[in-house]
Amino acid sequence: MNDAIHPLARKAVIWHLAVTALVLILMMIFGVIMLMNQGEMISITPQWFYKIMTAHGTGMVGIAALGGTAILWYFLSKYVKLNPAILIVNFVLFLTGVTMVLIAIFVFDFSDGWTFLYPLPAQSAKMYGAAGAVFFLSGMLILGIGFLLLYMYLAARLTAVYGGIGKALGWDIIFRGKKGYGPPAAVVATAMVIITNSTALLAGATVLAASLVNIMNPAITIDPLLAKHLTYAFGHIFANCTIYMAVIAVYEVLSEYTKRPWKANKVFLIAWNCSTLFTLMIYTHHLLMDFAVPKWMLIIGQVFSYANGLPVMVVTAYGALMIVYRSRMKWDFASSLFFLSMFGWVAGAIPAIIDATIVVNHVMHNTKWVPGHFHTYMGMGVVAMIIGFMYYFNKTEGNQQHRGIDTFTITLYFAFFTGLVGSFLYAGGISAPRRWAEHLPQWVLSDQVGAVSGIFIVLAAIIFTARFFAGLRSVGTKVPYHKKSAAG
Amino acid sequence: MYQLIAMYATVFFVFLLALAFAFVYGESKRSGEYSAIQEKGYKIRKFYFLGLIAIMAFATIMTLGRLPYDRNQAEAEGFSETKVVKVTGIQYAWEMSEERFEVGDTVQFDVTASDVTHGFGLYNEKMELVAQTQAMPEYTNTVYYTFEEPGTYQILCLEYCSTGHHVMVKKIVVEPEGGSSDE
Ligand SMILES: [Cu+2]
Predict the structure, then answer these.
(1) Could you report the per-residue pLDDT of A226-245, keeping only the tens digit for each?
(2) Separation between Cα atoms, residue A390 and residue A245, nearest integer Å
(3) Is A294 helix (H, G, I), strand (E, B) or coil?
(4) Do the Cβ atoms of A328 and B31 come within 8 Å?
């Protein structure tokens, strides 16, 4: 058990995970409803389809960030003393923001997607009333402020303990030739996420506030292309960072299970610094079809999107393979999911990198290929890491045991997730557009395959969640805070 | 064509990846000394890294020369002179300055929008996406396409633009070369 974590923070981690698990199931059901509608198995109005789509997109990214935060806080506590109040403040602001977003969607019919491209929210505010857009944009703003406060606090803590964000990223080892290892992986990852996500949140806050101002006073406008840059600098980086938070669990748990240290050597540090830089730059691949963007910027979008795959493929995923190789590791729920999540991450990067090629993007941008690739790395990567952590948490803080049903659920989840993303990628390959409430006959079969896969994924998620809540009952019965015991 | 390449390349690389993971899973049941594994692993990684760089560099060089919005490129490939067509997206329709084309026409689509951002997606008769660009207010994005086959083409909105997004479709007809009698 993690003795270093404050008991209150441990409780807050449980709330994070519980909310994540429940919202995850609901969002998955939303996903299945959309696929069933496209696959002509049920029929809902387009208005409802797009409301559900907005909720699904916003909700999934939000809960991935929430689950990632719980992982980050839990493991970082081992190395840096943290004040649980900040985690709780973020949680409260998150719930407030989410409630406002839900009110916007389900009470005031807001359905402009979680990418809310300017001037769309202002345009629909004119048609459906301003309340929906205002609730949505301010909800997102409040949620963002919660995360920004959290990162500011973490930045201050890392500066106090490690002498700066640069040192936490191992700059003295990379640039000053300092010998030895850098800070623990959890610290390196936290430093990366502080830099990238603070940038993302500031970009987001700018475009959210500007959109709000524009709705209140239409005379004050924004440049639509600049707004799109800001929206994607926010959305892409923020969604991307969920995996950089969640991966901390992989480093910690795999090295614990294999009894092999996963130390931050120079190559590791260089890789994380590259990821920091590239994650900030590559959102431009969302604008590859905006030819008004300067050509050099689009070429950056392609070249650095390629390059951003390298740190993951060469250092993190490869490191996971190396640490597991001939380790006689015990395969249980947590280790299996963390191992598979590394596969999911890289497997999702492959179609992403291919789509970042301008000539390919030209005929695949905004087709179902795009949700195909991000569902791979979100569902089989980030979410797998979060679910793996839920089990690990119960096992370490309580006495959860791996059972036969867990092996079954993991198989169920990954097999049908492969079916789901396969159906998406195939649909993208035959040019089915993304975000269409209704589909042409030639696309319907792929939607049906996706919908059926989705139903089994929901089933797996329900079993995972039931197991998680059952396991929670034994949490906290072990040893009190600050008292080591032989049973540890 | 690019769609097919993308699909096959994805299946191929994901398959290789799955093999690597399956192999390591199989080997995880044996035990070995980690420092020796690391030493060998780092050696292999060097080649693996260089291999990935080589593949990416090759793909970059092969593809960056064929940017879809390059005017010089379009003129070099076009057989006849370029037809300029103004396209405006508006919730939920496409307005075009010209709607009739012939096989062999190289068309310069100047695409913009008058309300919110839309996506200009040109589909051929087989419903394959053959060209696209964003339709954004205050900006004009130019995309070129040379019609090589006759048939009914469609323009689909590919950027979510509110609740009528999926009905924003326009049909255009491309006649065989010299096929229409009234010109
Ligand atoms: Cu549209």
Answers:
(1) 999 999 999 999 999 999 99
(2) 15
(3) coil
(4) yes
